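Hi U.,

Before I forget, here's the chain from the pilot set. I'm dumping it here mostly so it's searchable later in email.
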Amino acid sequence: MLLAVFSDVHANMPALEAVLADIKKYKPDLICCLGDLVNQNVWSREVITMVRAANIPTVMGNHDQGIGAGNTNFRFSYSTREEKAWGKEAIAYTMAQVSTKDRAFLSNLPSNIRFSFSSADGLLDLLMVHGSPQSINQYVYHFTKADELRSMITQAHTHILLMGHTHHPYHQVIPAEEAGRKTFLHAVNAGSVGCPKDGDWYACYVLIEWDSNRHVLTDPEAVKVTIHRVEYDIDTVVHAIQRSPLPLFYAGRLIKY
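Structure:
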């Protein structure tokens, strides 16, 4: 089984086009998205159209939730008063760009998607969320302790937890116990297509691969997670933001690394 997962596009259509083109080279069995299709760039409508046309299973991100609800002041990451003000300007711009049908699509996205796959040692459960199983707004970072991740994944009754929201890709394998046997859980963050925050401006997605004939639950190496980085035409994106009413902050943060 080969699964391609991306997240946090944030209306960056050139980055999404490059990622989807790269994914196609690997011919995955399934492509999924962990949310935040819109806001903070100029192609919110186009990204929605692209994802819908490709029938990509997508969970709701906090920006999808806010824009879908018509909320002009929803919660997201900012560290200064200026960033908060710029965030409100970005929301207002995005609201003016998307249609009623676009907002209806966003507001009807599910909070999570669960898949189950057969393996040699039982059903492998996979859960897709944006922030965490508990909250669309929770940040589960790459430095989150293994005990906390184990508790979170176990309480969600899954084996592989797929997350976005932090814009920082990672894969952690966590030993656990299930039905009296030692098993291994996986916490996977798909990073960000539209605005990575891990020091690399290239668009990001992950490939997850396993062989259903192997003991996927009890072999820590049976699930392979690969983080992929994809170059795209960032100059076009920066110039598009510069020509739009969006604050220049959203262009600068794409290239500051």
